[in-house]
What we know:
By secondary structure, this protein is an alpha+beta fold. The protein has helices at 2-27, 212-249, and strands at 37-43, 46-52, 61-68, 71-78, 85-87, 94-98, 101-106, 109-113, 119-120, 126-127, 136-139, 142-143, 167-170, 177-178, 184-185, 192-193, 198-202, 204-206. It has 2 domains: 2-79 and 210-249, no CATH class; 85-206, no CATH class.
Amino acid sequence: MLRSMQRIAFSMKTQESKMDVIANNIANANTRAYKKEALTTRSFGEYMLNAIENNKKSPAQIPVGAISLGVGFAAHRSVFTQGDLQETGYSTDFAINGDGFFVLETPDGLQYTRAGNFTFDDEGYLVSQGTGLRGYVLSEDGRIQSLDRNIQIDKNGFISGGGRLRIQHFNDLGLLTKEAGGNYTNTDPQNISQQGSYTIMQRYLEASNVNVIDETRDMLVVKRNYESCQQIIRMMDDTLGKAANDIARL
């Protein structure tokens, strides 16, 4: 029974972690280009149970099956499905329709984002804004500058003042590390890819890919699972309490 209680405790901890992820997704449902998170789970190791054959000079162990210690969470992962593209009318707003990320030059090195709500700084450089680490938006030739704060970028990424917007692709999006504010970093040079299909949408922004209805439904499922675990724990506790009382009377 002790191991059963351990399995249920692991399950309850997993449900708590799932609830935290869902709550964070809902809180970011209106965050530009936010990618929802999911919780990956893994099974804990199994132990083989053996019965000892009695009345033998050399007792043999007879396999009777395995018992699992339950399921726990392994890691968070971002779900990179594209959010809806919403028209804003602002010339410094850009969305990627398809694969890839905008490339930012930040104090901490290169970072990548799908949030294209850019602006110009005092020197006329196109920069990111929002809650993430602020950085210069890069073209294939470096920083993008427009002294008159007027910029046009066509669907293929070519900039009116010359050059082309730098869009970065990756072989495995699961290797990206999520930073504060929704930016991403890549630490594996082998993960860089030249393959990708996209168009640039000026005066558009990508919305979050969080579906509030789906998240609310998942939240209710997690809540029910957690409550079921609580009920089982109470039943086991009552059983142990009765057993202890019966033994005491003997």
